[in-house]
């Protein structure tokens, strides 16, 4: 990093806080283990949609919705991204409560490299030698895990692919992160609310009636845990060089991995460790290459990076 590059401290702490919250979320969803995963996701949708809508109304009035309505293509694609993010949330929550936190963390380690592959296939971007090496190492790690464990790590791949495609569509749309989440929530709110009512009417849900006040509050606050890190992230990326944000994103899967092994007691045998090591090595190659390229882009006058 050039000596002249200044980093906004508030933005930096916003990014760190967001990634730490995302990394500690397995503990939160584990506290809700008594609730079926689908109902956790539905509550997450309902409460986060209400919170984000309230935030947008307070900060932008009704103008945020008009901005999206003026772009019909964006509104249509946000319907697709709402489905993708719901799938991602549902798979992750199920994985946590089914004892697959480690494999879930693997998905978010792989995700940046899947983004690179999609950039090549969809956006026709070109990779340099280091990036191809990074992708190759990650692919070798996935193949090794498949061989060593006797099955494809479908949870990790499902999480990585769904979030990568989600990110690709959001990149193409170029819609503000919080506004995009607000529109996605608007699409999902009524179906999710209707499903929750159906569960309650049929006796399969116990919100405000059987799970207890503690569980009810956790389900409600899960909406805040969905929205707050994203708002913090949106705040950070406008103030911190994106290369640094890219490095910080590995806080989340690292915390998830440590929680899975040290707190939730999941097995981490040598066979799995070798596969992770190959993927980590690929990420190191990828991160170092990104850092070197960012240094080359810094002007001789040490102009601050603007992403």
Automatic annotation (TrEMBL):
<feature type="transmembrane region" description="Helical">
    <location>
        <begin position="274"/>
        <end position="291"/>
    </location>
</feature>
<keyword id="KW-1003">Cell membrane</keyword>
<protein>
    <submittedName>
        <fullName>Chloramphenicol-sensitive protein RarD</fullName>
    </submittedName>
</protein>
<dbReference type="InterPro" id="IPR037185">
    <property type="entry name" value="EmrE-like"/>
</dbReference>
<dbReference type="InterPro" id="IPR004626">
    <property type="entry name" value="RarD"/>
</dbReference>
<feature type="transmembrane region" description="Helical">
    <location>
        <begin position="130"/>
        <end position="147"/>
    </location>
</feature>
<feature type="transmembrane region" description="Helical">
    <location>
        <begin position="211"/>
        <end position="236"/>
    </location>
</feature>
<dbReference type="InterPro" id="IPR000620">
    <property type="entry name" value="EamA_dom"/>
</dbReference>
<feature type="transmembrane region" description="Helical">
    <location>
        <begin position="74"/>
        <end position="94"/>
    </location>
</feature>
<dbReference type="GO" id="GO:0005886">
    <property type="term" value="C:plasma membrane"/>
</dbReference>
<keyword id="KW-0472">Membrane</keyword>
<keyword id="KW-1133">Transmembrane helix</keyword>
<feature type="transmembrane region" description="Helical">
    <location>
        <begin position="106"/>
        <end position="123"/>
    </location>
</feature>
<dbReference type="Pfam" id="PF00892">
    <property type="entry name" value="EamA"/>
</dbReference>
<keyword id="KW-0813">Transport</keyword>
<feature type="transmembrane region" description="Helical">
    <location>
        <begin position="12"/>
        <end position="29"/>
    </location>
</feature>
<feature type="transmembrane region" description="Helical">
    <location>
        <begin position="181"/>
        <end position="199"/>
    </location>
</feature>
<feature type="transmembrane region" description="Helical">
    <location>
        <begin position="41"/>
        <end position="62"/>
    </location>
</feature>
<feature type="domain" description="EamA">
    <location>
        <begin position="11"/>
        <end position="146"/>
    </location>
</feature>
<keyword id="KW-0812">Transmembrane</keyword>
<feature type="transmembrane region" description="Helical">
    <location>
        <begin position="248"/>
        <end position="268"/>
    </location>
</feature>
<feature type="transmembrane region" description="Helical">
    <location>
        <begin position="153"/>
        <end position="169"/>
    </location>
</feature>
<comment type="similarity">
    <text>Belongs to the EamA transporter family.</text>
</comment>
């Amino acid at each position: 990093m050039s000596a002249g590059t200044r980093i906004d401290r508030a933005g930096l702490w916003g990014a760190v806080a967001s990634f730490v919250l995302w990394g500690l979320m397995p503990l939160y969803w584990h506290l809700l283990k008594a609730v079926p995963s689908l109902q956790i996701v539905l509550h997450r949708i309902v409460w986060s949609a209400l919170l984000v809508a309230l935030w947008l109304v307070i900060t932008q009035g009704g103008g945020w919705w008009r901005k999206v309505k003026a772009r019909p293509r964006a509104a249509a694609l946000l319907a697709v991204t709402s489905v993708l993010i719901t799938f991602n949330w549902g798979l992750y929550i199920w994985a946590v409560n089914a004892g697959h936190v480690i494999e879930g963390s693997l998905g978010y380690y792989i995700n940046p490299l899947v983004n690179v592959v999609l950039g090549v296939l969809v956006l026709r971007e070109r990779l340099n030698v280091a990036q191809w090496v990074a992708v190759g190492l990650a692919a070798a790690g996935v193949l090794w895990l498949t061989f060593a464990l006797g099955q494809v790590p479908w949870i990790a791949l499902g999480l990585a692919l769904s979030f990568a495609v989600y990110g690709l569509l959001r990149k193409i749309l170029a819609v503000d992160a919080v506004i995009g989440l607000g529109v996605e929530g608007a699409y999902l709110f009524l179906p999710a609310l209707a499903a929750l009512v159906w569960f309650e009417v049929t006796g399969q849900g116990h919100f405000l009636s059987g799970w207890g006040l503690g569980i009810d509050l956790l389900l409600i606050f899960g909406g805040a845990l969905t929205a707050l890190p994203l708002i913090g992230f949106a705040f950070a990326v406008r103030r911190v060089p994106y290369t640094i944000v890219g490095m910080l994103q590995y806080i989340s899967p690292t915390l998830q991995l440590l929680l899975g092994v040290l707190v939730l007691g999941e097995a981490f045998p040598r066979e799995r460790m070798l596969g992770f090591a190959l993927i980590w090595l690929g990420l190191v190659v990828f991160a170092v290459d990104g850092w070197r390229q960012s240094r080359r882009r810094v002007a001789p006058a040490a102009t601050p990076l603007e992403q």
